[in-house]
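Intended use. Records like the one below are meant for learning the mapping from a protein sequence to its folded structure. Do not use them to infer anything beyond what is encoded.
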Amino acid sequence: MRIRTTRFSWVEIEAEDVLTFPAGLVGLEDCRQWVLLADAENDALGWLQCTTRPEVALAVVSPRRFVPDYQFRVYRSELTALGLSQPQDAHVLVTVGKSERSLTLNLKAPIVIHLESRQGRQVISNSDLPLQFELGLPPATLKKTA
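Structure written out for the chain above:
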């Protein structure tokens, strides 16, 4: 099937590529069908594209790529609907944002996906984690001019 997107034009996906978020995402409760797309230029970056609203695409990354010891705590009942038998069956992503100084990661509200059931849910962590964890910018490259 083909879906229209604002960012990527038309995208060809299979029905089994669709991820269902029964409760939507925070602030996007009406967006329940998504597809995870790889970024062609950056292998660390993915895009969670809503299949029903072409203008809605969220930049996402695996938090452990940038915060190796990342862990979050939620009540077990928060994840019951996903049908996870083991916590390690979860695929965890966080959204990428932008502050005045750098790119940020929302570590407080991760997106948990059970790839086998194709179900997802955004949860709010009980842990003391930041909504805007700033990624360090690479140092500016200086070039001698005189």
